[in-house]
């Protein structure tokens, strides 16, 4: 039977306001929707609130006002356990990778599965296959300090998707890599979206990515207003 919950929007913001303190509204009345299996870029000037918006979407922050639903579930109605369960359906990639230095590439990717008590016998082949998919099949035992920025980011992408998330959120994933690697990372995100149907949301200043991604481009302006624009409309980033 078809799982109807997959047909719900992956992310829905309803009049979301986020304040970090009095007179410190970062987002004001933001409403937006990401359809299941969509591919979306989020752009906007520095300080507009992109990272803050992503943190709300991956449940690291709660809105000051308004409501956020993930996969049709209103996050405001959930307790800690419910939020944690929902959070497991979301993978996150950070600009600065956030790998654990004392673990190998293989161990970094396996970590989310270890944490939830999965056995190595069960996940080993999947982790190796994922590292091969990102082009690091020969670096399984490498520690992060011996990897380039692009290689680290590919380990981080593999780690973010090893739990087969329904939604992948990436915050400036190409901020620390060269243009060639940026294109390669974009292709990985696109393949993930097309082959597995993972909903992808990427915040980026990378004009190359905006020009080549396809999909939707959302622009956050003045820290508050969300415009949806199609690609190649001369965005000012
Ligand atoms: N924890 C916090 N406490 C107080 N203010 C914060 C906090 N985090 C972010 N801000 C402020 O909120 C605003 C939006 O920040 P945010 O990092 O979301 O923007 P951004 O669009 O991601 O910027 P950039 O493109 O430079 O990464 C900024 O003015 C920032 O200083």
Automatic annotation (TrEMBL):
SUPFAM superfamilies named among the record's database cross-references: P-loop containing nucleoside triphosphate hydrolases (SSF52540)
Alphabetical list of PROSITE patterns matching this protein: ABC_TRANSPORTER_1 (PS00211), ABC_TRANSPORTER_2 (PS50893)
Keywords: ATP-binding, Cell cycle, Cell division, Nucleotide-binding, Transport
Domain ABC transporter, chain residue ranges per copy: 11-236
The keyword Cell division belongs to this UniProt entry's keyword annotation: yes
GO molecular function: ATP binding
UniProt cross-references to InterPro entries, sorted A to Z: AAA+_ATPase (IPR003593), ABC_transporter-like_ATP-bd (IPR003439), ABC_transporter-like_CS (IPR017871), ABC_transpr_LolD-like (IPR015854), MacB-like_ATP-bd (IPR017911), P-loop_NTPase (IPR027417)
Name of one Pfam family that matches: ABC_tran
Biological processes, Gene Ontology terms: cell division
The name this protein goes by in its record: Cell division ATP-binding protein FtsE
Annotated source species: Hirschia litorea
């Amino acid at each position: 039977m078809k799982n109807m919950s997959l047909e719900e929007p992956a992310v829905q913001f309803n009049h979301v306001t986020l304040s970090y303190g009095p007179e410190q509204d970062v987002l004001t009345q933001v409403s937006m929707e990401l359809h299941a299996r969509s591919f979306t870029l989020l752009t906007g000037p520095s300080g507009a609130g992109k990272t803050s918006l992503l943190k709300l979407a991956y449940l690291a922050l709660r809105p000051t006002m308004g409501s956020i639903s993930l996969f049709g579930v209103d996050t405001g109605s959930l307790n800690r356990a419910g939020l944690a369960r929902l959070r497991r359906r979301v993978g996150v990639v950070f600009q600065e990778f956030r790998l654990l230095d004392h673990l190998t590439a293989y161990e970094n990717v396996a970590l989310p599965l270890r944490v939830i008590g999965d056995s190595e016998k069960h996940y080993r082949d999947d982790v190796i296959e994922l590292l091969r998919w990102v082009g690091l099949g020969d670096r399984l035992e490498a520690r992060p300090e011996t990897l380039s920025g692009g290689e680290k980011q590919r380990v981080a992408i593999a780690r973010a998707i090893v739990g087969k998330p329904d939604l992948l959120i990436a915050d400036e994933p190409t901020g620390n890599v060269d243009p060639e690697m940026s294109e390669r990372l974009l292709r990985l995100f696109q393949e993930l979206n097309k082959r597995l149907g993972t909903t992808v949301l990427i915040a980026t200043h990378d004009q190359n990515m905006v020009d080549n991604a396809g999909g939707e481009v959302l622009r956050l302006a003045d820290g508050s207003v969300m415009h949806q624009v199609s690609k190649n409309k001369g965005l000012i980033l």
